[in-house]
């Protein structure tokens, strides 16, 4: 085992790495173009701002040639997909900036699956979805009506781990599967992120928000999207844990999560992120 591999198996290394990336986001304020769904715009923009990044909700195809090349990263989310937005998504993903994909409810329809597969072919740096979304993409399958739950997952993250590895190898993207434990893989290495609280699932678009945040971290660390995505998921989950300490329910957790993300300090991040390289 070389020195780099030994470092990555040390939990303290992950804490330092997460803080380093968050500090760099705060210092550089990367500009993230978000072509995201109508439900998630608010929380995605607020999560980016709280972490220190700069969100831009720019959807018009006519703006992409001028605007996207000036961005540090692009975030594409198909949650409220329409044919009008697809050309903008394709153009922004092809503009040469690092970009991430959130394949919301990929199995909901043939149209949505076709759009996700077309976007996958444009090589996102990271694909982040729940277990059902990643399984659907890996299998290129539309869900049966009997177990379909819309944007919610009907599987645990561990159920999609092998599918995530296969998808990462076939696309060249890092694939992140959200769940009680988040798994992030490049097809060979697997990182587990264990921060978070169950009530985060009761707030709409928290998954969308963390994918937007992944784009900001990838802008800072484009050469290691695996580490960038893993650290983002742990930091966002940690903010949820801290926010839960002052919350009475989903609405107050949403507010306190964003506050916690803004207030994270070095000691908290380095001591409380739960990241580990899996066998």
From TrEMBL:
Q: What is its EC number?
A: 2.7.1.50
Cofactor(s) in the UniProt record = Mg(2+)
Q: Reaction catalysed? A: 5-(2-hydroxyethyl)-4-methylthiazole + ATP = 4-methyl-5-(2-phosphooxyethyl)-thiazole + ADP + H(+)
UniProt key word Kinase: yes
Please provide the record's keywords in A-Z order.
ATP-binding, Kinase, Magnesium, Metal-binding, Nucleotide-binding, Thiamine biosynthesis, Transferase
Keyword flag Transmembrane: no
Q: What class of enzyme is it?
A: transferase
Q: List the Gene Ontology MF annotations in alphabetical order.
A: ATP binding; hydroxyethylthiazole kinase activity; metal ion binding
Q: Which HAMAP family match?
A: Thz_kinase
* Entry function: Thiazole kinase involved in thiamine salvage pathway.
The protein's name = Hydroxyethylthiazole kinase
């Amino acid at each position: 085992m070389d020195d780099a591999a030994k470092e990555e198996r040390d939990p303290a290394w992950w804490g330092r790495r997460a803080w380093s990336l968050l500090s760099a986001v705060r210092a550089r304020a990367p500009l993230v173009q978000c072509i995201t769904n109508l439900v998630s715009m608010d929380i995605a923009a607020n999560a980016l701002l709280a972490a220190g990044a700069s969100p831009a909700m720019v959807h018009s195809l006519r703006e992409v040639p001028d605007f996207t090349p000036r961005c540090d990263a692009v975030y594409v989310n198909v949650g409220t997909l329409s044919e009008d937005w697809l050309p903008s998504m394709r153009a922004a993903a092809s503009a040469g900036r690092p970009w991430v994909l959130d394949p919301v409810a990929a199995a909901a329809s043939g149209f949505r699956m076709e759009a996700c597969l077309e976007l996958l072919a444009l090589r996102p740096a990271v694909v982040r979805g729940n277990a059902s979304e990643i399984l659907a993409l890996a299998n290129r399958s539309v869900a049966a009506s009997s177990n379909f739950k819309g944007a919610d997952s009907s599987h645990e993250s561990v159920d999609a781990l092998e599918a995530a590895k296969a998808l990462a190898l076939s696309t060249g993207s890092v694939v992140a599967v959200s769940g009680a434990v988040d798994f992030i893989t490049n097809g060979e290495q697997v990182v587990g992120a264990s921060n978070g609280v169950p009530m985060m699932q009761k707030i709409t678009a928290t998954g969308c928000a963390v994918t937007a945040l992944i784009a900001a971290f990838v802008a800072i660390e484009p050469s290691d999207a695996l580490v960038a995505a893993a650290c983002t998921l742990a930091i966002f989950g940690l903010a949820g844990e801290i926010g839960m300490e002052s919350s009475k329910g989903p609405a107050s957790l949403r507010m306190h999560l964003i506050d916690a993300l803004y207030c994270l300090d070095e000691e908290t991040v380095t001591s409380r992120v739960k990241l580990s390289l899996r066998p």
